[in-house]
Design a protein that fits this description.
alpha+beta; YojJ-like (1; 7-stranded mixed sheet; 11 helices; 57% helix
Length: 273
Amino acid sequence: MERIITYAQNIRLADVVDIMIVAFIIYKLMMLIRETRAEQLIRGIIALLIFTVITKRLNLYTIQWIINNILFYGVVSLLIVFQPELRRGLEYIGRSNFLSKPIVEIKGEQISKLTSEVSTAISSLARQKIGALIVLERNTGLNEIIESGTKLDADVSSELLINIFIPNTPLHDGAVIIRGDKIRAAACFLPLTENITLSKELGTRHRAALGISERSDALAIIVSEETGAVSIAESGKITRYVDDETLKVILQGVFATEDIRIFSLWRSKDDKN
């Protein structure tokens, strides 16, 4: 108890800040690897480290030698195994507000028009049970995905989006990429998710939408051709059966820049007062 009191008396403000930063980093890492392969791998590593301590206490030299060699050569193996998670983490840092800015900034008056055009197209496709996959680019550039499809560079309109996904047309199979107020490309190929726990009810469109949301901060909108249900994929998670009003709110948040969102929040509070 005296030792604890001594430590508490000698603690500095810099030590508190240091501990808080480390705790924040650990928390963010835990959130980043949650529900991924890395989570199970880390549990295995922790179990291996605990087993190493036990073997040292019991003087089990042969097992201890084997474990030490596994840990030594396993560092290189971990870099290979954790490659998707490491890439995701570096991209997350690169998307931080203090390191990046929106690729395309949209003015306030354009947001309502874009929201209306996209939501109208999604509603029409859902009613007709026409499968569709639309990806809204944010801070992470999707040029490599755009290159895989047919470039359009057309203004966003509900008529064009609906016509793109009409069955048996040249561009219906694949994803549409929207950057800002432009449809950059159609019939684009997306990486499929590596999530093995995903429901078997979800088809290729849903898996592709989850795949791009795992590798970027993009938001993907999916229309099921079997049920006409609308789903949203974001940050490696999928939300199904999204209604029209919810979709409009989500779209407004995607198209709006941070400054516009803050201004809208201030205006809504001011109106309530």
